[in-house]
Amino acid sequence: MVERYALEPLKSLWSLKKQYERWLEVELAVIRAYEELGIAPKGTFEKAQKNSYINVEEILDVEKTVDHDVIAFIKVATSKMGDESRFFHFGLTSSDIVDTANSLALVRATKIILDELKSLYNILIKKANEFKDLPTIGRTHGVHAEPTSFGLKFLSWGAETERNIKRLEFALDEISIGKLSGAVGNYANIDPKVEELALSYLGLKPTKVATQVIPRDIHALLIEIFALIASGIERIAIEIRHLQKTETLEVQEPFKKGQRGSSAMPHKKNPILCERLTGMSRVIRSYINAALENVPLWHERDISHSSVERYMFPDVTMTLYYMISKTKYLIENLFIFKENVEKNIDITKGLVYSQRVLLKLVEKGLTREEAYKRVQKIALQCWKNKKSFKEEVKKEFNLLESEINEIFNSNYYLRNINYIFDKFKSK
Predict the structure, then answer these.
(1) Residues 108 and 82 grouped into a single domain
(2) Is 265 helix (H, G, I), strand (E, B) or coil?
(3) Which residue of 17, 69, 80, 272 sits 20 to 30 Å from the alpha carbon of 325, by its own alpha carbon?
(4) Adenylosuccinate lyase C-terminal domain location, by residue (predicted)?
């Protein structure tokens, strides 16, 4: 965990104290199930709940001797119990506790992330509608292409976020499972009814088929979806970074009062937040390979996945939550310089309307090949000599003034924007 990027409530969720508390939740749920099924005497659960004891320092101290974190936890957690301790960890193996508790943590973290993602989606759609009718230059390969709607940028990001919300909802359902089936997952020493009951108390479902562990393809899918979300945020950040370039200056990320952009150059306002989000996206994507390599474990299990997950689960969830939270701030407070957005359409002196000229000539009877060659010849000359494409078109082609004005009109490119927005809403 990098303290700099750790935000509540995810920061506390992954603390060592919370981890032991989740382990205790699982152990107590099993005892409750034993009691309900008549395997443990009445009152066992209440006594175990009352007398259970969690002390992080003591658990860590015991672990120094036993070199096993779950055994150390059990010894301390039951240290103040009486006869009820007989049913603590009864018929279970360490992975029953750790895997089920990890599911609890991932479910809780994912729900928090999901709520934040939905909030970001609403902000993006609001911005999309706000700037729907603002013409901007579209760029392909980084080169001016044709005018489009500035709001479509936000709508595109919103649509991707909507897809990621649906993906994450699916993964949340899939990760909402636990495993309480014993040493190799075959219920040899625990009744399947205990698992079903105990997990129901925790809001989880039994894993359909487990070994000693929950299959890691389930976790890998969640990490992959987290990486997709991070990549979507990076797409937003990269666009803003490009549009904030001095030569472009169509947008600028928030710059707070008292903020400084450079230790050497007082004039600087750098897109540091967007660059931070870009770097964080790389970190999250890097965990995909680790998550996939956790899938093929030896036989019924080994623990090669364990050390990976101690890094991965907290880091990925906390980093992603930070990214979404900061992206919300970024979009809500983004400076948009409308005059520059519209001005930049004409930087090429009208070349971006070349296809409209081409199509008008085809309408007038030229073949497409002939029209393309003639328009390209003029366009390249205008680019080289920095001449007005509109004026050269007037000289070269026999077009009416009204036709010329219709061709060189950026609002033409917004004529089907409402259709796109309506199509998005209808899906």
Answers:
(1) no
(2) coil
(3) 17
(4) 349-425
